[in-house]
Amino acid sequence: MDWSSLVQKHLLDTGDVTKGAIYVEDGAVLTKSDNFNITEEEAAAALEGFENGEALLANGLEIEGEQYHIVGVNEVRIIGTKGTNGFFIYRTPKTIVIAVYEDGVKPGVCSSAAGALVDHLEDLQY
Fold first, then answer.
1. How far is Cα 90 from Cα 94, in angstroms, rounded to an integer?
2. Which CATH class is domain 3-123?
3. What is the pTM of this model?
4. What percent of the chain has pLDDT over 70?
5. Stretch 87-112: mean pLDDT, rounded?
């Protein structure tokens, strides 16, 4: 599977997502957009957030060195915001999709683009 083309086609090319990545559940990166400078530690903290949502809600999450406020977390989605920027992190049975939006992008369209990629991955048994 060409993971980078999935991020490009389903996230970046929509214009609704500024940066994106796909990880496997153990934290290994499958692909991330060239402009996405998320660290391994930040990605690991995001993945752990699915298991400890209360701590995530209390402490927020750092992505690319910026602290984001967590406004929603459940077993399949984490939502973070900072001013007019934010992210959606979705979990499928085998992968984690991170979609970041920045100034000028509406959160709902970013979520929809990420959700469409998640649906596609689930259709492929990921």
1. 11
2. alpha beta
3. 0.95
4. 100
5. 96
Q: What does the block give as tokens for 89?
A: 């992190």
The residue length of the chain stands at 126
Measuring CA to CA, which residue among 18, 25, 20 is closest to residue 6? 20
- Quick: pLDDT tens for 27-67: 899 999 999 999 999 999 999 999 999 999 999 999 999 99
Angle at 72 between CA 99 and CA 96, to 5 degrees: 35
Q: Name the one residue in this structure whose structure tokens are 């049975």.
A: 93
Residue 65: both structure tokens together: 């060195």
Burial zone of 17 (CB within 10 Å; 0-12 exposed, 13-18 middle, 19+ buried):
buried
Sorted by where each begins, the domain ranges of the chain are 3-123
